[in-house]
Amino acid sequence: MERHFAMDRRLLLAALFTGLVCAGQVVGGLLTGSLALLSDAAHVFLDSFALALSYFALRAARRPPTDRHTYGLHRLEVLAALVNGATLVAVALGIFREAVERLREPSPVLAGPMLAVAAGGLAVNLAVAWALRHHDRHDLNVHSAFLHVLGDALSSLGVIGAGVVILLTGWTLADPLVSLGIGGVILLGAARVLRKSLHILSEGVPEGMSAAAVQRRMAEVLGVAEVHDLHVWAVSPGFLALSAHVVIADQALSAADAVREELRGLLAREFGITHTTLQFECRSCQETLACPGPGCPP
Predict the structure, then answer these.
(1) What residues contact 163, with CB distance under 8 A and at least 6 apart?
(2) Taking all residues of the chain, what is their mean pLDDT, rounded to a whole number?
(3) I want to staple 280 with a disulfide (CB 3.0 to 4.6 A). Which of 106, 206, 239, 289 is the partner?
């Protein structure tokens, strides 16, 4: 629990510091005329939002289920990611439009201050990445926030590169060209976020998993004759659920509890599915055993 609270504090501080970087880049971009700085500021703003989102999602996900939210508030993380992805697309399109205008009509850029602001942003991004380096890689929420910060650092390096080119050669087109690159990175990230969040919200099979493979593996358990009407989905990243009808041999009906425990252990161990609803049936008898998951009666 103490480790969770420590990560919460790091995420909150990371969101605050990246927010300050964003404010500095907006001011610096307006004063120097650098579109690359303003583009990076948009990227940093959305990453600051993502860090704050990760913080609140972690806090909300720990709340116990209620009568109104029987799965808890895990889906808030997915809904917020969907909004975040849509915003990223809008920002990327805005950067592309402005960059094309700058390529048509180049504007003067103050390379020295631009370099100073970008270097400051890079330093903060590296410090935040260092603070989050010991996160649990199986926690997709925190891991995605960590990758956001690394993306910010790479964008800052791009802005620094553009500033050096302008300072040494006076070639101001380096500024909008770097902006196009940053916009491309943002758009790729947005596409991944939208694809994953829409897949979860449409209750698709978790990525990297095959429902047929899960069904076959369950049918291999001793005492199981058949598995049908199987559904597997993600409530949120890392929270996987499954429901299925399990036909067991007549002689195994009395051992349904042992079969149930074996299936639950297999699903958790091999597929990471921890929330299961299993209904047991047998072909030749009229008896049906239903189990709603953890805590079901013998």
Answers:
(1) 34, 36, 111, 112, 114, 115, 118
(2) 80
(3) 289
Taking the mean position of all CA atoms in its chain, how far away is CA 175? 30
Q: Is the pLDDT of residue 287 over 50?
A: no
Model pLDDT for residues 141-200, shown as the tens digit of each residue: 566 667 667 767 777 888 888 888 888 888 888 888 888 888 888 788 778 878 888 898
Q: Do 149 and 14 form a contact (C-beta atoms < 8 A)?
A: yes
- Full-model pTM: 0.70
> Which residues fall within 8 angstroms of residue 213, CB to CB, at 6 or more apart?
none
According to the per-residue pLDDT averaged within each range, which of 8-12, 207-211, 215-219 is highest? 215-219
In this structure, which long-range contacts are made by residues 253-257, counting pairs with CB atoms below 8 Å and at least 24 apart in sequence? Answer: 253/280, 253/282, 253/285, 253/287, 253/289, 255/223, 256/280, 256/289, 257/298
Distance between CA atoms of 14 and 150, rounded to whole angstroms? Answer: 12
pLDDT digits (tens, 9 = 90+) for 238-269: 789 999 999 987 665 667 888 899 999 999 99
Q: How far is CA 266 from the centre of its chain?
A: 26
Q: How far is 53 from 11, CA to CA, in rounded Å?
A: 9
| Distances in whole angstroms, Cα of residue 80 to Cα of each of 5, 51, 201 | 22, 12, 12
Owner of token pair 């592309």: 96
Q: Tokens representing 188?
A: 């790729």
CA dihedral defined by 52, 57, 62, 65, rounded to 10 degrees? 150
Domains and CATH numbers, the chain: 2-201 (1.20.1510.10), 211-291 (3.30.70.1350)
Cα 247 from Cα 263, distance rounded (Å): 13
